[in-house]
Amino acid sequence: MAGPRRRSEAMRDAAFVFKGTVQKVPGATMASVPVDDTTAIVRVDQILRAPEALAGLTGDVITVKLTERARPKRGEQAIFHTTGWLVGDGIAVRSLGHTDVDSAAASRAAHPRDPVAAKAARDLERHRDDADLVVTGRVTAVRMPAEPPRRAATVKARAPISEHAPAWREAIIDVHDVHKGAGSPKRLVVRFPSSTDVRWAAVPKFHPGQRGVFLLHAVAGRGVGKTRYEALHRDDFRPLDPLAQATKASRAEKQAR
């Protein structure tokens, strides 16, 4: 069973956070959900953080799978921190825990925000925490990967051409500021897939002149004596203004806790 600290961390990372009123315990809005003491029907009164797919549920009743420890009673209103579970003839989510409405209402009222934007800011914050290096910089050039001829020949012989092939390119980044990571690199090489195939469509495509913040992960085993990086996630690059807005929203959310 998770301890208080782990439960608290899980609640902070919840994808769908809403203020709701318990309508029935036990109960469920979906026939596919087995009803027991840990299932409840909850009306969504206000959405505080949500993915876009769940942002329109205000006023709806949904099924909440409650935690073993925290089981609010019928008529009780609380802030539910949840994650997705089932979608079908209704919506069912798993609760990671709930908090008292009265203790949280004042701080939330002072920091009103779009629930989808709040989730985006939280996702960006987590992505930044996971990154090995975060820098502000400018793309000065894009080139074909500098691979040894022998390796390139081996790959070509063993792997048939695929429509999902990444079409690797390398972006040369002039670093202006280092926000996270060891050292003070002046220039970086970032490998990225230039293919627009559905598998790679959301990944950043770099071109000379782009300026922004790069959130990078180190790639082991590439190069000798040098750390190499790849951009394989949609949040690995952010233009300066959108990143600043997301960071501001993230800070406001931390202050509201």
Written overview of the protein:
With 257 residues, the chain is an alpha+beta fold. The chain folds into 2 domains: 4-110, OB fold (Dihydrolipoamide Acetyltransferase, E2P), CATH 2.40.50.120; 128-254, Beta Barrel (OB fold (Dihydrolipoamide Acetyltransferase, E2P)), CATH 2.40.50. It is built from 5 helices and 11 strands; from the N terminus they run αβββββααβαβββββα. It has helices at residues 4-12, 101-110, 115-130, 149-158, 240-256; strands at residues 16-24, 39-49, 61-65, 77-87, 91-100, 133-143, 168-180, 187-193, 211-219, 228-230, 237-239. It has a 5-stranded mixed beta barrel. Strands 6-7-8-10-9 form a 5-stranded mixed barrel. β9 (211-219) and β10 form a beta hairpin. Residues 148-157 have low confidence and may be disordered.
Could you give a quick summary of the protein structure above?
This protein has 257 residues and is an alpha+beta fold.
Reading the helices and strands in chain order gives HEEEEEHHEHEEEEEH
* Mean pLDDT over the residues: 80
The name CATH uses for the topology of the largest domain is OB fold (Dihydrolipoamide Acetyltransferase, E2P)
- Strand order of the biggest β-sheet: 1-2-3-5-4
- Counting DSSP H or I runs of 4 or more residues, the number of helices is 5
Major β-sheet annotation: 5 strands, mixed, barrel
Tally the beta strands: 11
Judging by the overall fold, what is the CATH architecture of the largest domain? Beta Barrel
Question: How many domain modules?
Answer: 2
Residue windows where pLDDT falls under 50 for at least 5 positions: 148-157
Give the N-to-C terminal Cα separation.
25 Å
Envelope shape:
elongated
> Helical amount among residues, as a percent range?
10-25%
CATH C-level name of the largest domain? Mainly Beta
Question: What is the CA-atom radius of gyration, in angstroms?
Answer: 23 Å
Q: Find the structural class using helix and strand composition.
A: alpha+beta
Please indicate the percent range of residues in DSSP E strands (runs of 2 or more).
Answer: 35-45%
